[in-house]
Amino acid sequence: MVCAGRALLRKYGNLIDNLRILVKGGPGGMGLPRLGGEGGRGGDVWVVAKSGVTMKHIKDKFPQKRFVGGVGVNSSVRSLKGPSGADCQVDVPVGIAITTDDGTNLGELDKDGDKLRVARGGLGGGFRTEFLPAKGQKRIIRLDMKLIADVGLVGFPNAGKSSLLSSISHAKPQIADYPFTTVQPEVGKIMYPDYKQISVADLPGLIEGAHINRGMGHKFLKHVERTKQLLFVVDVSGFQLSVKTPFRTAFETVQLLTLELELYKEELLDKPALLAVNKMDLPEAEDEFQELVKQLENPKDHLHTLPEKLVPDRQINFKQIIPISVATNQGIEDLTRCIRRSLDEEAELEIQQTAKEKLRSLHALTSQSVSHKLLPPEHTMD
Predict the structure, then answer these.
(1) Do the beta carbons of residue 144 and residue 96 sit within 8 Å?
(2) Minimum mean pLDDT among 76-80, 185-189, 215-219, 239-243: which range?
(3) pLDDT at site 42
(4) What DSSP state is assigned to residue 303?
(5) Are the beta carbons of 50 and 7 closer than 8 angstroms?
(6) CA distance 202 to 184
(7) What is the pTM of this model?
(8) Please, are residues 129 and 31 in contact by the beta-carbon 8 Å criterion?
(9) Domains detected in the chain
(10) 181-212 pLDDT, tens per residue?
């Protein structure tokens, strides 16, 4: 069935990552009272994840108002049980979170082929309903794209994230020497000699106040939620967005990035994280790098450089700190090895945890069975 629909959209730059659409299940068919016939059920509306689909495809393909299931067929003398109406299928990108207009979570589609029914068709008329059909379910839903990647690059504008992604993968993000070059997520894949592939996402640059939706705000932070681990990228010499904003050292930059993640969703700080310190080809970079390492070993001794409101409650324990220079390719191979090792370690921990949980469940079942067998028999009287 061809569905009709028009999507209301929110858009930043060239990226459409949020759609608000109306979905409605088809009405059921009429029953046939004199012969006890039952009308067909109305068609459902399904959202299905498909590789290669974008939000723009949805917007362009369905210019009308809503997505509606087919009408159930009326009962008739020739067909007492009316056929069901056709389902309406809406293809969406992989990595979609679906909520109702009031914020209720309906589900997430993380793999190609995942599907979710978002509106049920109405029942056909029959004996129990005086042969009158029911209307289909109708509601507004939100399709919210949250990027799925193994690694998400976290950093303030111009830290070198786009250049780094270009050097470690086949992705070709836009690169320039001014902030906010990246206006939409770019995903590249690191290819290893054993054919292992790791996806890395370069996400739009954060600014101070992103957690309250300044700059790219929530648009950036929501994509971080779906990555397996984080790779912080900071300029060893520090960062200043403009002449009107304060200069931040590399240590302060790490603290402010941590704060933005913490204030948006504290669970993000539980993700495994690496720190890449970029631009090590600059003069005095080695001294600045050593200073940063010392500060991160004892952060409480150095947090006085920031106003109290800009100090995060929690610190990220980086699995490794890697000095790199994208300009000279220094440390890039070390970084890709660290990324692989970190992901492999986390995967192994997951396997071990799953095995332990299965073993605990097995022990619990065995204990219950043994306890049942050891219960004394009921006493009977002659």
Answers:
(1) yes
(2) 215-219
(3) 98
(4) G
(5) no
(6) 8
(7) 0.70
(8) yes
(9) 8-145 (2.70.210.12), 149-344 (3.40.50.300)
(10) 344 567 888 999 998 999 998 876 565 554 44
